[in-house]
Amino acid sequence: MSDGVNMFHICYQYIPHDSRPYIALIVFALKLFLLHMDDILPQSLKYLNSTPKKQAIGCSSIILNGPKDRILAHTEDALTATLNHYYFVVAHIINDTPQGKYNVKEERFMSLCYAGHLPGYTMSYNHHGLVFSINTLSAEILRSGKTPRHFITRALLGAENFEQALKVLKDEGVGAGDGCSINLTFLNDSSATCYNIEMAPTLGTEKESRLDIKKIAPSNFNCHANKYERIKIEQANQIMLDSSISRMKTFMAYNPPKTKKDVITMLGDTSGGTHCVFRENLCMDEEVKTIAVGVFDLNEKTFALYSDNPRHHEPHVTLPLILK
């Protein structure tokens, strides 16, 4: 690494002054690219030198597709160091000509982001009515030369309908290098169907992501944490798996949710010891905390954000979901 840094400084002195800002942008872009390989690089290093991964151990999502209340809600669990270092990105991007792999000309979305990260990897919606949340999943064997999940979920922000969303997640021609779970629905879908989609890294010479699509039809609900529940795959990060099993066990101890209040009660559960659903011990020595809870009300078309336990506190803000 030091040789590379030295080589950069040697080259940098010969670059004309008016070009240096562009070189700096390239280096910055490379750093951001590496930041979004948060599972691929540590998992590879584990095999090289047995370096343990230090990462958050998960988030929980609940979809309630009831006859009365329709809710997509999510807890965001992260390393304590990220507390108060997240923000909303509200963007309206218009290009003169279609851009990128999916020829997107206009995007308008809102997404909760960590500093330095692309939008799309926590909880988000776009002006086409797409609403989704993400649960990190960690496969033991990841794929080089494939698309990191953060870039796939960023592209998802441009999807206009379910078919386009599936196309983005499949990433035909390349496929995912790592995996996640996507909880999603479209507000303008006349069938009122919600989905949980497990995405896993490509297999062998295949050039598209592995997907398992579960429909949550009206009058049903679904919970998902940070463990592959349907795709048969060797999984990594034992602490995250133990936490997921504990949280799912907690959810299954409840009666099926029927109202928004039921969902909020489940996401605010602090039973289960270390691996509880809502993690907060009121001290900064806790490695992982629940830093935010988001509740999409699919009927009211609103998003409520909590930074404290939603069982006992009102949301900091409730925002309208503005559609095209």
Automatic annotation (TrEMBL):
Organism: Glossina palpalis gambiensis
Coiled-coil stretches noted in the UniProt entry, renumbered to this chain: none
A Pfam family hit: AAT
Domain of life assignment: Eukaryota
The protein's name: Peptidase C45 hydrolase domain-containing protein
Xref: NCBIfam families: C45_proenzyme
Domain (Peptidase C45 hydrolase) ranges: 65-311
Organismal lineage: Eukaryota, Metazoa, Ecdysozoa, Arthropoda, Hexapoda
